[in-house]
Amino acid sequence: MEEDEINTLIAEHFTVWSDRNPLTRRAAMEKLYSDDVLVIAHYRFNGLPNIDAYIDDLLAKRPEYRFAQRTPVESHHNIARVNWQFGPPDDPARVTGQDIFTFEAGKIQSLLVFLDTKKNQ
């Protein structure tokens, strides 16, 4: 995939993970992620319904928080990484971390999530 395509997918990824409307979020997810997308962090989820349910729960517990990209995307060979932040307007970097993506057929195939443990303790 081209760098611009990867950058666009990652920008849309952060929009999806901050979208509190389940209908628009699910429609965007279907365009963005493969059907069997895999997310691994302190948990492991496979497939759009499971990931959507996790996002819904996460955002319900933190109603003012939003995800945002902190660094430019670095990518090669359909793999990319980017640092992110998650927090309320008065502390937007309350939680920080890094995502590593793999891409296949123009969609996100997998996502590995790392939290910045020193900051988030």
TrEMBL record:
The record's section on InterPro entries has: NTF2-like_dom_sf (IPR032710), SnoaL-like (IPR037401)
Annotated Gene3D superfamilies: 3.10.450.50
Q: Cite the SnoaL-like domain residue spans from the record.
A: 12-109
For this protein's source organism, the top of the classification is: Bacteria, Pseudomonadati, Bacteroidota, Cytophagia, Cytophagales
The protein here is known as SnoaL-like domain-containing protein
Domain of life of the organism encoding this protein: Bacteria
What is the scientific name of the source organism?
Spirosoma radiotolerans
